[in-house]
């Protein structure tokens, strides 16, 4: 998951034995190209200076678009292969890093996020080496360029139809190893392993894209002009930006603390202003004020006239080192990647809502409005802000807050996602019932225990919480204790999905009935966020990351136990042990079951108490919040014959729903985590000839407490399939391009898959494999579909785990 689940930067792959605990990608990963052809073509020989054109390609209009379409699939995040980041010219110019900073180690490495240094020269001081050469000779620029050597090798050896098996061993090693830091060292590696060229393990670039990159590198690889950079920074609506910056920096003495609270909770989010269409922003801290405040109300300048002087600290609550912090909206100009994209969407009316939420309630007369920096304890730092205001902000933006946990700038984690189950639903306590809102201190003397990540500290916190709840709610909770989104807000019911090394968050009840559920209140959600996001040090050594992971496991158990407290007492222990079996049963004894004796005012009936309880919750929250019924993943299946003819999209959805949310299907454990399927029909209006679905495998394990031997904890007979009528997750494992006429046979063949050999034959028949000449055309189409249908929430899809041997 993020962290990075931010993503916790930890995560491990479920199908491969864990040989190193923490790491990210090595030197292999895909690039992207313009509009690649649908057929194979001969690869050119190495370019010479004579073949280079005299006119230098424009970076902004010709070069970066190729990087966007073919490279940032794996080179657009922290920890990308060799730490080469190709989503912007500063990243390209920065180059690579010889050592994998995410490999197993005891000590911390320097930060590698793009805010950690102000210039290429500073990156060189940190150990980054150039991947481009800039001399007076075009031939030398090509010969000495690591980037050129890699794409040239790809042109020579990645002709569609290349051997996928020949590069599979290197895909398995991408979390280890070092990267060549010179062209000569790279040449030696390519001589031994020519299949390592870029795009790694995928078809080569189109000839016209290769020519553009070749000519640009030969001509000295210049960056964008000042005019191009100014144009990229231009705002669609400077007035809208000015209005928000005026809010974040208003003269109300409480506003600085409110803005600090908001910033620490959304600093990773992509911000979209409804009245500044086409722009994306992030909220940053700056040492320079907005133009409107700089002019002290005299006007005459726009938001574009006040440059942002970024305050970059390792953690969002780090000491800014200036007397006054200004909160600014910085326009994002790099192309977004889906793996780290989650959107905080703001309308003009939200300024009034946030002002009412935070500034209308009474604050304590002795409130500390200027708490110290460098303290990762939100309960202490933001104690002056009314607790209900803090909690309602998190509730009303829950998908954004959880998005910070599940998405993030790090490419992949290595262990963290295993702390959560593959599919679960999340509910929240209503502020009127939340113990940590009604008595924020929980009767404790200080706030340190809230963020104590030790077993003893966590147990003491749970004890204080249970005693406070018993005092305030001696009869237990009714359904009214579950927040209903005020009848409108779909953040009240979230679906979380784990896909091996990454996690997705969706609004509403999606994917069919899961096996487990969470119930969170303010203090629990805040503890989770600061553990996995605000205080997460992706650059830290293994001990620090392991501490984050272990605390995450304790928090997950707390939220599962919170939900179990709604059930009859006699059911709780049984279900708790059903959710955590095997080795994990030992861990259960170390984490207090603080809701085991909690009274409940909810009556459940029927043979399955969990199903009855969830159905009661669904009726209580209503269909606007839940989104139910789920036609693709129904608990009660339609009366459709398995082999009924499939003549239209409705027939397909009815047929595939017969396979979803069911245990014991032999084909499900053989599936990769995420299949993206395009279903085509020959007739009808052009805009309705294709539908896109995500087929997601939900794996079940005895326990989430085992960090190594995950395969030994697998329960494949309990795995299920969920289908979604859109793109889910940013890491597709396989594309399938299916005509409606073949849909019936597809489902028949899918049900017949029983082992890995069956799956490989099935994938070869229906999948768009990574050595196929169809690959790039389909990839381009699905990215265009994503942009057209999901708008600001759409980013470029990641290919790190596409058609990978270990998935």
From TrEMBL:
Pfam families: CTI. Residues 45-55 have a biased composition (Low complexity). Residues 36-56 are annotated as: Disordered. It comes from the Bacteria. Keywords: Isomerase. GO terms for molecular function: isomerase activity. This is Fatty acid cistrans isomerase. It comes from Thiocapsa marina 5811.
């Amino acid at each position: 998951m993020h962290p990075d689940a931010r993503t916790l930067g930890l995560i491990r792959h479920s199908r491969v034995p864990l040989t190193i605990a923490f790491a990210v990608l090595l030197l292999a990963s895909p690039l992207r190209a313009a509009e690649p052809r649908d057929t194979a073509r001969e690869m050119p020989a190495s370019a010479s200076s004579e073949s280079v054109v005299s006119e230098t390609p424009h970076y902004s209009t010709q070069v970066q678009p190729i990087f966007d379409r073919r490279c940032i699939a794996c080179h657009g995040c922290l920890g990308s292969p060799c730490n080469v980041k190709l989503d912007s010219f500063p990243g390209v110019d920065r180059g690579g890093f010889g050592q994998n900073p995410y490999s197993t180690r005891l000590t911390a490495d320097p930060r590698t996020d793009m805010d950690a240094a102000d210039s290429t020269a500073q990156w060189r001081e940190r150990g980054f080496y150039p991947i481009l050469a800039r001399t007076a000779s075009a031939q030398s620029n090509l010969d000495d360029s690591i980037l050129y050597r890699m794409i040239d090798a790809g042109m020579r050896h990645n002709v569609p139809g290349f051997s996928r098996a020949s590069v599979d061993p290197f895909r398995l090693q991408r979390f280890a190893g070092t990267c060549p830091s010179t062209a000569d060292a790279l040449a030696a590696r390519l001589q031994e392993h020519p299949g390592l060229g870029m795009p790694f393990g995928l078809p080569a670039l189109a000839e016209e894209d290769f020519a553009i990159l070749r000519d640009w590198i030969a001509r000295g690889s210049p960056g964008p002009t000042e005019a191009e950079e100014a144009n990229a920074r231009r705002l669609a609506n400077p007035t809208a930006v000015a209005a928000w910056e005026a809010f974040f920096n208003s003269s109300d003495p409480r506003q600085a603390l409110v803005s600090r609270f908001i910033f620490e909770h959304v600093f990773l989010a992509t911000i979209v202003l409804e009245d500044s269409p086409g722009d994306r922003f992030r909220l940053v801290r700056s040492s320079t004020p907005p133009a409107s405040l700089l002019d002290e109300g005299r006007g005459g300048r726009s938001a574009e006239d006040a440059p942002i002087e970024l305050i970059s600290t390792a953690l969002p609550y780090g000491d800014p080192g200036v007397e006054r912090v200004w909160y600014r909206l910085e326009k994002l100009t790099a192309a977004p990647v889906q793996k780290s994209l989650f959107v905080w969407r703001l309308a003009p009316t939200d300024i009034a809502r946030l002002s009412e939420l935070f500034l209308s309630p009474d604050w304590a007369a002795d409130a500390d409005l200027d708490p110290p920096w460098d303290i990762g304890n939100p309960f202490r730092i933001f104690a002056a802000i009314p607790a209900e205001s803090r909690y309602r902000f998190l509730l009303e933006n829950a998908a954004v807050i959880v998005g910070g946990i599940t998405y993030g700038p790090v490419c992949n984690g290595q262990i963290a996602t295993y702390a959560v189950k593959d599919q679960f639903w999340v509910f929240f306590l209503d502020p009127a019932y939340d113990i940590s809102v009604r008595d924020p201190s929980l009767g404790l003397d200080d706030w340190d225990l809230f963020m104590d990540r030790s077993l003893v500290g966590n147990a003491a916190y749970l004890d204080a919480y249970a005693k406070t709840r018993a005092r305030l709610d001696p009869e237990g909770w009714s359904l009214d204790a579950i927040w209903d989104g005020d009848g409108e807000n779909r953040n009240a019911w979230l679906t979380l999905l784990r896909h091996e090394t990454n996690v997705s968050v969706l609004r509403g009840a999606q994917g069919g009935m899961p096996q487990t559920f969470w119930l969170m209140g303010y203090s629990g959600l805040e503890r989770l966020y600061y553990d996995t996001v605000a205080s997460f040090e992706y650059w830290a050594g293994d001990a620090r990351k392991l501490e984050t992971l272990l605390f995450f496991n304790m928090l997950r158990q707390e939220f599962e136990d919170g939900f179990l407290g709604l059930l009859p007492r006699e059911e709780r222990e049984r279900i708790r042990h059903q959710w955590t079996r095997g080795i994990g049963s030992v861990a259960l004894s170390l984490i207090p079951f603080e809701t085991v004796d909690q009274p409940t005012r909810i009556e459940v009936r029927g043979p399955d108490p969990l199903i009855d309880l969830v159905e009661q919750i669904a009726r209580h929250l209503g269909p606007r919040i839940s989104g139910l019924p789920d036609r693709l993943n129904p608990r009660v299946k339609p009366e459709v014959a398995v082999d009924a003819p499939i003549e239209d999209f409705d027939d397909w959805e009815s047929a595939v729903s017969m396979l979803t949310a069911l245990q014991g299907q032999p084909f499900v454990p053989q599936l990769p985590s995420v299949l993206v399927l395009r279903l085509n029909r020959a007739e009808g209006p052009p805009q309705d000839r294709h539908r896109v679905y995500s087929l997601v495998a939900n794996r079940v394990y005895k326990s989430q407490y085992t960090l190594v031997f995950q395969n030994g904890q697998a329960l494949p007979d309990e795995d299920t399939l969920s289908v979604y009528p859109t793109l889910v997750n940013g890491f597709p494992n396989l594309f399938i391009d299916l005509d409606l006429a073949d849909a019936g046979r597809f489902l028949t063949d899918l049900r017949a898959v029983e082992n890995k050999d069956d799956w490989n034959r099935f994938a070869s028949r229906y999948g768009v494999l990574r050595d196929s000449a169809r690959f790039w055309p389909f990839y381009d189409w699905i990215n265009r579909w994503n942009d057209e249908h999901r708008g600001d929430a759409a980013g470029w899809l990641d290919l790190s785990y596409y058609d990978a041997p270990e998935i």
